[in-house]
Automatic annotation (TrEMBL):
CDD domains: AdoMet_MTases
TM stretches of this protein: none
Pfam families from the UniProt entry: Methyltransf_11
Domain of life: Eukaryota
The entry's keywords: Chloroplast, Methyltransferase, Plastid, Transferase, Transit peptide
Native source organism of the sequence: Aristolochia fimbriata
Location of the protein in the cell: Plastid, Chloroplast, Plastoglobule
UniProt-listed GO biological process terms: methylation
Molecular function via GO: S-adenosylmethionine-dependent methyltransferase activity
InterPro entries in UniProt: Methyltransf_11 (IPR013216), SAM-dependent_MTases_sf (IPR029063)
Protein name: Methyltransferase type 11 domain-containing protein
Amino acid sequence: MAACLSYVGVPFPSSSRVSTLPSPGKQRLTVRCFSSPRVRASATVSVEATPELDSDDKVSFNNNFLACPICYDPLIKNAERESTAFQCPTCKKCYSKNEVFHDLTIAGGAKTYGEVKPLSTEVFRLSLVSFLYERGWRQSFIWGGFPGPDKEFEMAQTYLESTRGGILVDASCGSGLFTRRFVKSEIYSRVIAMDFSENMLRQCYEFVEQDALPKENLTLVRADISRLPFASSSIDAVHAGAALHCWPSPSTAVAEICRVLRPGGVFVATTFVLDGIPALPPVLKASRQYFAQVSSNHYFFTNELEDLFKACGLVGFQSVRNGSFIMMSANKPS
């Protein structure tokens, strides 16, 4: 999604491809997402309706991937309350929607309970940060070696080639910097823009409107990266631009990404690495865990990221570096 709050100017903190995607048999299903008319889906899953909901109210857009983040069971459409889009047939929890996004967080809809996330998460919920992200904040990444959104998108597509026509999740999408490029490319049957920040999702939608991009195959979802609201083995590709270092638990998040990817699915991510800082003082290397606890941001070396991906079940780690910038790719085993 974005760089850490502590990043100002200088950060402190090629590829095997799979060929099992997407599934050949695709259907066209009716979807209500904004003004969505129709969308392609790669498979369908039959879900029994609960007594409270008619079978006709099952989620009509690709019901085999959208799931309850508590039970991981497919959600069904709730026609009884306008403000509630979906319900879990198992735990009966209802998930709300508004004119911009579906809220599929576990605590979403709680009346009195609330949680304060780490600073690296909470800062991006501020309306000022969401407004500034593409109005100067992201442009400063060039000092860390980031080549710029257009080039980063082009690089990511080399890793994502095998997922053409599939479902892509833009995790920690922020203001939609890459979401818009994925939608505009028309490469994917569905693009899911996912973020924990309500204001980032609103800014993403505003930019989509300004660019007059089609919304038929776009879904905006508020979700926790550590508890993804997608069924296991249901997503073709996950992209996370400049986000991994801000996640509260990178290992939990990457493990969740591995869970939701289809066999052969691809995860592509960019972040900052300490390898790119020349002559990093040994004392700084030794104390980075302390700084991580204080700032809620994570500081990686490339070999640690490869180890992280492997530990979470991904294979075929590939990476490209430029200064402190790194783009990584790995696959879920086929």
